[in-house]
Amino acid sequence: MENKVITVTSPLLPSLEDFIPYLKDIWNRKWLTNNGYYHKELEKALCEYLKVPYVSLFTNGTLPLMCALQALRITGEVITTPYSFVATTHSLWWNGIKPVFVDINPVTCNIDPDKIEAAITPKTTAIMPVHVYGKPCDTVRIQEIADKYGLKVIYDAAHAFGVEVNGKSILEAGDMSTLSFHATKVYNTIEGGALICKDEKTKRRIDYLKNFGFADETTIVAPGINGKMDEVRSAYGLLNLKQVDAVIESRHRTAVKYREALRGVEGISFMEDMPGVRHNYSYFPIFIDAEKYGMTRDELYFKMKRQNVLGRRYFYPLISEFSAYRGLESAQPENLPVASKVADSVICLPMYHNLNDSDIQAVLDIIICR
Ligand SMILES: *Cc1c(COP(=O)(O)O)cnc(C)c1O
């Protein structure tokens, strides 16, 4: 027990016993990838679970971002958030698109719709917001702006698996949404991801793009890429999908325990549930006000680390601070005061499906007994 480390996340695995019959079946079929049996089954099952019409599976959560930009022929400049995982902005860079960073809202940590219009130029073709921590963006306001200026909207919904607003999937917002099924996410296929779109024609184009652009044996309709998901991970994904509701319920219980214990702690704040939203509790960020708490974020972060509790400063640094992007005008800290402040105050606490009560208490003790 002495050296037990409490990690920030722990992957959801299907039972090995349940997985073996699927593997035997794959071995028998000898069809390993390229839209195989389990691939089709998982796309169908995800459409149902996520309440969306079309899902295209990918081998990770970055390629759907890159292919969404290709499918919608996005060029020039795209408005996005600096408060995300680097893949969001990297997908723009890989498409030769200039990212334009807009500051975030301090309550939701999502792109601030009030600041989008000022960042639009004649070169702007799209907005790429992120539902950070699975908290829904203001999709209504964002769509109004997009419609007014004729822009496309691609949501990076990597954190938002299963999130619903008033009974409707958050993945319905915008022109397309992307998911990541990386091992660290609420729902995983080890590595994996998906692109969600609204019509069959677009789905077909996405499926060409993720398979080198092949429309048939001899026709290449676009310079596509290899983004395909294989049969082994598709089968694994079918099994994990059966557990995901229980997993979200268990994460919810953890979030409630964290909140109850931290509510009275001076200098610590956290996010509350939003009315009408089915949350997925993918992360539990806390925000430290150093003056009131009596300790800086980094002091608390390293104190936790010394006591074998691994939080994560997620998202710090901001994407706009990385060498590839820091030269951009929109990347300057004066343009991003809220994001800069939030990035300097955040720690994501351990959060996963089988985090037990004594571990939760151990995390809380470090934060409360300062
Ligand atoms: C995880 C993540 C991605 C990338 O997903 P991968 O599956 O790791 O390629 C993209 N955007 C955000 C916000 C993420 O958290």
UniProtKB/TrEMBL annotation:
UniProt keyword NAD present: no
Q: Which Gene3D superfamilies does the UniProt record give? A: Type I PLP-dependent aspartate aminotransferase-like (Major domain)
A single BP term in Gene Ontology: polysaccharide biosynthetic process
Q: Active site located where?
A: 185 (proton acceptor)
Cross-referenced Pfam families = DegT_DnrJ_EryC1
InterPro entries registered for this protein in UniProt: DegT/StrS_aminotransferase, PyrdxlP-dep_Trfase, PyrdxlP-dep_Trfase_major
Keyword annotations for this protein, in alphabetical order, are: Aminotransferase, Pyridoxal phosphate, Transferase
UniProt xrefs under SUPFAM superfamilies: PLP-dependent transferases
| Any GO MF annotation of the entry | pyridoxal phosphate binding
The UniProt record lists the keyword Mitochondrion? no
Residues with PTM N6-(pyridoxal phosphate)lysine = 185
Which top-level group of life is the source organism from?
Bacteria
Concerning its family, UniProt says:
Belongs to the DegT/DnrJ/EryC1 family.
Entry protein name: DegT/DnrJ/EryC1/StrS aminotransferase family protein
The organism encoding this protein is Bacteroides fluxus YIT 12057
Lineage here is: Bacteria, Pseudomonadati, Bacteroidota, Bacteroidia, Bacteroidales
